[in-house]
Sequence to fold (105 residues):
Amino acid sequence: MPTLALDHYLLLGAALFAIGLYGALARRNAVAVLMSIELMFNGVNVTLVGMSHNIASPVPLLGQIFAVFIITVAAAEAAVGLAIVIAIHRDRKTIQLDEIDLMKW
Fold:
């Protein structure tokens, strides 16, 4: 079974990060922006795991350990972000980012 080279991991991670960045900048829906940020986190995770797999390190699973920490932060970000979106939706009746102005009550 052929193994993947580091280039494959880096290309996939960069593609995921670029798609997530485009989605975060181009979307107006708050939930879509949160999903794009999660996609960016997953691109970083793929890169870290690929680097750990292909580069000799004193700690063999260092990339996987960092990936678990990023997944934990992403879960916390999703929970807090969705709570904020729900609170704004209850108050403003919309989750479109260009229609939300928090300075006006």
